[in-house]
Amino acid sequence: MKRIDLHIHTKPTKKDVSFTFSLDKLNEYVIDKKIDAIAITNHNCFDKSQFIEIRNKLKCVVFPGVEIDIESGHLLLIAKTDSDLTDFSNKCRSLEYLNDDIQSSISFEGFRKIFTDLSHYLLIPHYKKNPSISDEIIAKFGTDIFVGEVSNQKKFTVQLKSPNELTPVMFSDIRVSEDLNSFPFKQTHVQLEEINLNSLKYALGDKSKVSLSNNHSALFQILDDGTLASDGLNVILGKRSSGKTYTLKRICKSFINIKHIAQFSLLEADEEKAKKDFEEKINLKKSNIAEEYLEEFRVVVNDCLKIDNDKDNKNLEEYLSSLMNFAKHTYEADIYSKANVYNESSYNLVRDVELVQIADSVSTLINTIKHKTLIQKYISDEILIKLHKDIAKMIDDHNYDLLIKEKTNAIVVELKRLLRSKSSVPQIEDCDFISTYMNRVKLDKFSLIVEAIKAEKIIYTEEKYGYNVEVKCRNITSPGELREIIRRSSGDFKGQFASYNSPYSYLKSISEKTGVPNSEAYKLFCVIDYKVKNSYGFDVSGGERAEFNLLSELSDSFKYDMVLIDEPESSFDNMFLRNNVNQIIKDLSDKLPVFVVTHSSTVGASIKPDHILYTERVIDEESMNVSFKVYGGYASDKKLKSMTGDEIDNYTILVDSLEAGEEAYKERRKMYENIKN
Amino acid sequence: MKILKIDDKKGYFIKKNSKYEVIEKITKEDIYALIECVIDKDESEFDDSSVNEIVNPAQRIIYESIYSKLLEIKSQRKTILSNKDKVYSAALEKYSEK
Fold it and tell me: ipTM score here?
């Protein structure tokens, strides 16, 4: 088996966090993790001289490569070790513009223009890893893509077992910086003898040739001594001070993107602080819900802020008074004012918004892959394409018409200016009637929307872990409430609040007088109330807050690649653990590896773990040095084994760790039976 | 419905109360009401062929200026109406939901 890591960053780009590359660290990483082959895959660039330096220093095989932003996902492109590096570097140079903008990515077609013969490369898309490349784009690559990168061990195993999925690989995606103090266990083991791109491609084409450990088991390495663990649920047992938390921390150091719920972290040492923290956490959720709810309103407010109603009124007044004035001076007309263009109005430039929307809709119908059959049942591609062509022609004509009108307006304005400078007759001021009208339409609709937002309404409800979360939107009832929303400790805001019932005046007032940035103005039209009640409809108690926090933390864990939980029983009662926590932990372990340190039989045994790790403190009698030994095995194994070959009885461990020994266990059972009888 | 008319050699516009008023009495609110009328009511019409019949040259100038502006709006009425319907429609729909 060869251990490979084909996703390594050695150059910071705008798409990365900043770091200083260290060649010594990279060398250390390769030696420490006994890696046989790596690839240098920086974002959209390839540094030939740095690559040669790395290749000369390292003892392992080093492939040239690049990580490309393509179709909103990432793709690793690995080249042969004997590639023409100048040619490869030139190809990568034409990707470098992608690093200028964090959002930009190349199209499939654009990519194919640069890399014409894909047989020279190994292509590995982000597959079950963000930002992933869609199945549609992967399908476009055909047989050139047969392997996909995943973010955690569970996804690796699931993908490995699915016949229709790509061969999974898991790599470190490491930024090799000089301050790196631990190295991740995120490499893939591949069954092959000699490492070159062709043999690698051959091996990766066969799922039976890849694994996360060198012995082909479903387990993966978690500690430097070779200790393995399951990609599902692992329970860590051991006596007090036997190194359970220490082991957990070591695991934490060896992986990336980990959720670590530390022991006692959810207990309330200070009730007031706990209440405040809880409120803050709730506020964070509230702000997400509020922002989502108010998104369309935000766009409306930003648009209305651009309207200057006073100016519109003034323009109309000026038009009218200048018209009257000109009419009065009709008998004084001179050769200049008699010219037709003297009082000519500008063309109204009305854009046909609907036409563009129709073109987009037809385009969607043409381009859909998912619903193609349904659409073709009613209308053929041929007709849709004809329709699209006709609409495109209409848009072109419309745009051309607008362009001509725009040019004409410019000429008219200039001619009017020239004539005006020669004549003593007052000129009629121009006024864009349509723009004035549309602005008023906008403000009328804005008022309607504000009224709708101010009407009390439940905008979000959720039953979460037995608690009811309810989010309400309502009107602001006092200047004090407005101040709270603005988050100011001083200022009475009475002046602004006085115009609260006239939406446009209120908007102008808060924009001009509160110092709130215009981009935040939309938040000052309503109050978002967020309440968590227990199942009886009452406010939550301290214990309930801790429970809610734990469940909330666990629920949040799904977006990580691994979860470590240290003694959850420290903070909660057994019924809560069994009824609420265990199921979430089980669900989590279906998606990613979970490690739970526990002394509780409710967690440790009732949860039915996949794998047991037992830690033991070892004191060297001569040197008195303390070390920790770890035994491991499946939950159903009779014996747990350490990496040095020692064995320990699984049943004894379970009963000792979770039930305080067999005697105590039997006594308790007897006592319960007596009470029952 | 005629919103601008020429009668007895004078130019008139229609007020909100549907009564006619001589054109030189027009105000900015009246102009806005006329624009609304042209856009909202397909049947709105205005006298055009007999502008030269208006005897008072001042009246004629005012009538011609307003007439030409309203005429341009009428020619773009469908597009304006369609754009008007689309103004903030998604937001209005979302927040008006009970």
Answer: 0.89
